[in-house]
Amino acid sequence: MDRDRILKQLLNSSETLVMPDAFDPISAKIIEYAGFSAIQCSGYSYAISKGYESENSIDLKTNLGITKSIVDSVNIPVMADGEDGYGEGDTFKHTIKEFINIGVSGINIEDQIHNVEHENLRIIDELDMLDKIKDANKIKLDLGKDYFIINARTDALLSFNNRKDAQKVAIDRANKYLEAGADICFIAYAKKLDEVKLLSREINGPISIAAGLPYNIQEFSINDCIELGIARVSLPTFMILSSIEGMVRSLKEIKSTGNFNESIKDINLLCNSGMLEEILSSKK
C-alpha cells in the first residue's frame, strides 16, 4: 500500500495519530524504529539543526532538500511543513507541486505570513487561505494524488491580544478550512487543556494539536488528547530539543570529569546490542 493511502487511513481511524518531528534522516529513522506510524517535518526544527536563530532562514529549496532526505530514509508516511506556501498564486501552486513530487504524503499550509518575525506574526485574509486550500486540492487531484493530506494550519491563537477573541477566530477559521476541503486542521499554539477541550468541542471535523512544547508540556499530555479524540498530535520540537539536551549533558560530563562514567551504559547499549545497525538499516 502506498504511503499516501496509509496516512489517509491513519487519520481517518478512530485512534489518535501521534507524529514526532524529524529534522534529518537519522531522527526520522529513530522515529520509525521506535514504532511510530508517521513523521511530521518542521521548518523550525530544520532551522535549529542548522544552527539558525530563525525559521525564516529556511527557504523553499532548503526545506525541500531536507524533507526529501527524510522521505527517502524511511518506509512510513512523511508530512511536510509547507509554511505559507512561500508565496501566493503561481508561487504557491509551484510549492505544492514541488512537495508532492519529492514523495511526501501530506503538507501543512499555514495562514500566517512567512518571513515575518515572531513578535509581528500576522495571519492572512481568510478568503486568501480558503483559495490556497482549494488550489492545493485541485493540484493534488490533477496529479492523481487523491489520498494526499492537506493539513490547514491556523495561527489565530497567537494573532490577537485577547485570548477569547483569538479562540473564536481560530474555531471559525478551522471550520471554514475544513468546509473548503482541508483534510484536517491544525490549531497552532494551544496552551491549556481547557483550550484543547474547547477546540475539540467547537470544531466540526478532525483537528491536530501540537504537544510537548515549552509553553504546554506541563499543561496537557498526549494521553489527554487521546481521551478527547484528537485526530492528530504532533511533537514539533521534541526530537531536536531532546537531542540537544542529551549532547549538552554528555559533553558537560566529559568536560567536568574527564571520564565517560555516565555515558558508558547508554553508548554500550546503542552500539553493542545491534540497535544502531537496526536503526540504520530500517529503509528496505
Automatic annotation (TrEMBL):
<keyword id="KW-0456">Lyase</keyword>
<dbReference type="InterPro" id="IPR015813">
    <property type="entry name" value="Pyrv/PenolPyrv_kinase-like_dom"/>
</dbReference>
<dbReference type="InterPro" id="IPR039556">
    <property type="entry name" value="ICL/PEPM"/>
</dbReference>
<dbReference type="GO" id="GO:0016829">
    <property type="term" value="F:lyase activity"/>
</dbReference>
<protein>
    <submittedName>
        <fullName>Isocitrate lyase/phosphoenolpyruvate mutase family protein</fullName>
    </submittedName>
</protein>
<dbReference type="InterPro" id="IPR040442">
    <property type="entry name" value="Pyrv_kinase-like_dom_sf"/>
</dbReference>
<dbReference type="Pfam" id="PF13714">
    <property type="entry name" value="PEP_mutase"/>
</dbReference>
